[in-house]
Task: inverse folding
């Protein structure tokens, strides 16, 4: 019995630890401007696209929407803040966040920055 429990806990731990390092590519474009020096020398513009999971930048709206979700999600506070349609917000409240499914989808969209109001 101990062996089965140990193996089950180890497998759960391995799954959770592998999910902790999962990432998604985020593109960020870095540009430099053209500068003309006094002696006539010019430095040309260069553009580089970086793909890195560390390039995620949180906006103030994302932070506020996340906090509203955490504390007031049954009242669709995050949806009202992000200006979702009124009918969908009322339906969200009446169905208790689509029995939690819409709520989880909203949270994922807010965290990844793909929610339409962001």
Result:
């Amino acid at each position: 019995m101990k062996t089965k429990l140990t193996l089950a806990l180890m497998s759960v731990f391995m799954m959770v630890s592998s999910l902790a390092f999962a990432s998604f590519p985020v593109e960020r474009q870095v540009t430099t401007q053209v500068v003309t020096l006094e002696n006539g020398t010019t430095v040309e513009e260069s553009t580089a696209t970086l793909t890195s999971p560390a390039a995620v930048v949180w906006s103030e709206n994302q932070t506020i929407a996340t906090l509203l979700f955490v504390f007031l999600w049954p009242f669709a506070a995050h949806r009202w803040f992000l200006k979702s349609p009124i009918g969908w917000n009322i339906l969200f409240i009446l169905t208790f966040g689509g029995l939690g499914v819409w709520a989880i989808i909203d949270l994922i969209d807010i965290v990844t920055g793909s929610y339409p109001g962001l």
